[in-house]
């Protein structure tokens, strides 16, 4: 039983919580480059204090990604590195902190981005610090990538995430835990499409029957799109935005729809993609243009992912901490690592709830056992 690890982290729980509070106090909304970069400066200083080789990746318009590396212990040899992932950016706009400051109320600590993922980010730092201070060598190199654009789809960090994933042995994603502190062993993938229907404009009074209504054709297609949703497989197709026409007295020449698609498996993604691309307007003189496709492949519960989870469950049981597993519909950067075939365990960050709202919180009592679990995974995998 890793009693020294638990004792070390318990003695530093208040310090860890204070550091989480410091990071929460540095507001870092997505695309607020100055704020995100200021938060990155603080984290870079912490990383340097842990002896990491820190590389900055500027992301104009977003902030700075941080890539920290540790070489591993004397037995690391040529082993592939472990990859840790967290992100600095939050969904909360500037000024949120003034009405929703960092605070601790009982077992809950509140603040913008505290669970998603500033708490998990700091937990990763303390896991590495504990291993260093206790003289417990890393069995392989560790790369900790902390990005600044996850909440807006990782447009600038994705290439680096995928490149590192191709070189790594496994990924641990420090995103918010599932219900009850569960680890996330599956996430739905995401696809996005834009459908544009081109009809023929006409005067709605004088030449109605000479027109081809793009709105009517799109309405028919929307019904066909929603019919692709399948509660049996969990595939969902949602037309979230529609626009069409110019005036009520003009037969609409053009109409568009923006579509969100979610799926549990790559096979389901390919099937629904083929079905969408096979759609045709009912009117022979209408045209349909389709753009988009899969943005993030699913994180599937493969045998390798199941093995990671079972290993984590056994490690947590060593110090009396029970962790379940969950499958969730939202995506994370774990989808990107899984998408290139890397075994990925997600949801290792803070246990809490209310993410993306001003009621977001983490549960203080979970900080020590979850940080210990991260450390144990790093030293045993």
Question: Would you kindly provide a written description of the structure presented here, covering whatever features stand out?
Answer:
The chain is an alpha+beta fold and 381 residues long. The chain has helices spanning 3-11, 13-25, 33-49, 96-99, 114-133, 158-167, 214-226, 266-277, 303-318, 333-339, 367-380; strands at 53-59, 63-70, 82-87, 103-105, 108-110, 142-147, 170-173, 183-187, 189-198, 202-203, 236-244, 250-251, 254-263, 287-296, 325-328, 344-345, 352-353, 361-363. The chain has a 6-stranded mixed beta sheet with strand order 1-2-6-3-7-16, sandwiched between helices. It is elongated, with a radius of gyration of 24 Å. The protein starts with a helix and ends with a helix. 47% of the residues are buried.
